Backbone:
């Protein structure tokens, strides 16, 4: 195989991997959008019935869902902070929620928005 063939094959394989990756991301985003309401309802139900393992599992799923709102994150944080004193199993979830909220409140620097100094 000559150099041009190798370059074309490499380019085709690379573009194929990128297309598959973005297709996977779009499918995951659609799946998250479909399940956010049911997961939130199940999380609230688990809180009502004090099922700690379910709270931990569903809370982690909700934090990593792309469609969760700031209001829902604040509610989760409030509930987990009150339950964490009695149930130490929720400490990891508390830190995951804390890091997600901290990431959302980050102020990103503006890059170039005027004359150079």
Residues:
């Amino acid at each position: 195989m000559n150099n041009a063939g190798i370059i074309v094959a490499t380019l085709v394989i690379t573009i194929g991997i990128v297309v598959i990756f973005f297709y996977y991301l779009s499918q995951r985003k659609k799946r998250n959008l479909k399940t956010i309401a049911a997961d939130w309802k199940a999380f609230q139900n688990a809180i009502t019935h004090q099922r700690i393992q379910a709270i931990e599992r569903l809370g982690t799923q909700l934090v990593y869902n792309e469609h969760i709102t700031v209001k829902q994150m604040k509610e989760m944080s409030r509930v987990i902070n009150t339950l964490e004193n009695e149930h130490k199993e929720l400490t990891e979830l508390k830190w995951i929620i804390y890091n997600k909220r901290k990431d959302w409140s980050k102020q990103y620097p503006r890059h170039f928005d005027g004359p150079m100094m």
Remarks:
- The CA atoms of residues 20 and 26 lie 10 Å apart.
- Residues 33-111 form one domain.
